[in-house]
Each structure stands twice: as C-alpha cells, then as structure tokens.
C-alpha cells in the first residue's frame, strides 16, 4: 500500500491535486501569520532580519538544489541552470532584502506577482512529493510571493505607474540576455524557443513564435492590472 501511494506521489503534479493545493494553503497561512506577527511584535530592525532570513533560506534552497543536481544527477547546462525568471529571482532575492532599494522593489513586485502566480496556478513539476524538485519548486515560487507581500503589508512599499514601465523595460533586458544565451547554449531559457511541456497560459497564445509576441503584448496590461489595486487604494487615501 505504501509503495503504491509513493508511486502515485512520484508523478508529475496535476492542477487541483493535493500536491498542488496543500503547499499553497500552507504558504498563505505562513505569510498571513508572519505579516500579522511582525506588525504587532517586531521593531523595524527585527522585521528586516526576519524577511532577510526568509530570503536567504529561499536562495540557499535553490543553490543547494543545483549543487545536488550537479553532484548526483545528470545536470545539463542547456536546460538546468537557474536562469528561468523565478529561479533567477530566488537567487538574487537576498540582495533586495538586504539593501531594500525601492528601484529593485519596482521591478520585482511585477515580476513576482505577474510571473510567479502563473507558476503557482499551473505548476511545472515532473516528479511530485517528496522529490527535491517538488520542494524546490514550491519554496521558490511561494517563497518569492511571501517576501514581496511582506514588503507590501509590513514595510508599506507600493509601486507607482512609472514602476510598471520600469519593470517592463527591465524584463526586455532580461529577454534579450536570454535570447543571446539560448543561442550560445542551444537552450530554451524563459521558454523563448519552445513552450513548457506542462499546461500553461502560453498554450492559449498559439505556437512559436506567436506565443512570444502575444506574451509581450499582454505584459504591460498585466502589469497595469497588478498596479490597479495600489492605484485605487492611493486614490482613496487622497479623497
């Protein structure tokens, strides 16, 4: 019976399954609890230390995952480098939580909410619980969301309308770098040469290269949609 359950667990994670929903619920509970506790009980220095610790945990987790893969698995530099947007953000997120620069927040708030939420809704996990990759995926995606919402609700950081276009410009720089790297490595980072194998929003945007064009066209509307709640709240404060 145990072997049968384990074999079921060690399959790709399907949308709506327990392996999909449970970590999301845990992350929501963790984030809300952390935000409430920090606002009620911690001073500013303690708040900074707490969220920096979370960021370091996320970053070290993904570094450990890649070191493990390099040492004990068939690591392929054409497909496995942490250069997909969420993995890259997870690598550098302690830089943001340490220096807390507003311009970094302006970029990350749209990248994380716009990109990571899509990964949470449509997970791309080939081997499910209790694989290392399963935990890596959720720690990265849900960890990034927890961190950015902590800065929004604890440190009251808010993007502006200019932030939408700053984040979009930074994303274009990233895309250009990934195009060059994909050409040099014959790779597919950021899914610029081929859609992910699992279900994703890109499935509705047509085949290559049309899904790239459509994706680019909807980025600014998507970022504006993310900005909308901040704009509404700001207007209510003014009035």
Structural summary, described in words:
InterPro entries: CHP02206_TP0381 (IPR011737). Keywords: Membrane, Transmembrane, Transmembrane helix. The chain is mostly helical and 239 residues long. Helix 4 (85-99) crosses helix 6 (132-153). The chain contains 8 helices and no strands.
Instruction: State the major sheet.
Output: none
What would the average pLDDT be, to the nearest integer?
88
Give the overall shape: globular
Total number of beta strands = 0
Separation, N- and C-terminal Cα atoms: 62 Å
Estimate percent helicity. over 70%
Rg over C-alpha atoms, rounded to the nearest angstrom = 19 Å
**What structural category characterises the helix and strand content?**
mainly alpha
Task: List the uncertain runs.
Answer: 1-8
InterPro entries: CHP02206_TP0381
Keywords: Membrane, Transmembrane, Transmembrane helix
Pfam family, one: TMEM164
Protein name: TIGR02206 family membrane protein
List the helices and strands and how they pair.
Layout: H1 2-9, H2 18-41, H3 44-72, H4 85-99, H5 102-121, H6 132-153, H7 161-185, H8 210-238
Main features:
single chain; 239 residues; mainly alpha; 72% helix; globular; disordered N terminus
In short:
The chain is 72% helix and 0% strand. The protein is mainly α and 239 residues long.
């Amino acid at each position: 019976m145990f072997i049968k359950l384990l074999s079921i667990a060690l399959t790709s994670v399907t949308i709506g399954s327990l392996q999909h929903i449970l970590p999301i619920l845990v992350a929501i509970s963790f984030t809300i609890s952390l935000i409430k506790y920090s606002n009620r009980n911690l001073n500013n220095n303690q708040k900074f230390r707490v969220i920096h610790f979370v960021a370091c945990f996320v970053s070290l987790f993904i570094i450990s995952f890649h070191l493990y893969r390099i040492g004990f698995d068939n690591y392929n530099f054409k497909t496995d480098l942490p250069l997909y947007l969420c993995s890259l953000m997870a690598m550098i997120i302690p830089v943001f939580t340490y220096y807390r620069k507003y311009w970094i927040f302006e970029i990350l708030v749209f990248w994380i909410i716009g990109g990571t939420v899509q990964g949470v809704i449509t997970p791309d996990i080939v081997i499910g619980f209790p694989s290392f990759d399963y935990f890596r995926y959720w720690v990265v995606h849900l960890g990034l969301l927890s961190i950015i919402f902590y800065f929004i609700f604890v440190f009251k950081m808010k993007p502006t309308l200019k932030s939408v276009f700053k984040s979009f410009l930074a994303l274009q720089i990233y895309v250009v770098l990934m195009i060059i790297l994909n050409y040099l490595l014959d790779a597919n980072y950021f899914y610029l040469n081929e859609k992910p194998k699992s279900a994703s929003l890109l499935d509705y945007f047509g085949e290559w290269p049309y899904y790239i064009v459509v994706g680019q066209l909807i980025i600014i509307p998507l970022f504006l949609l993310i900005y909308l709640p901040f704009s509404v709240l700001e207007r209510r404060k003014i009035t």
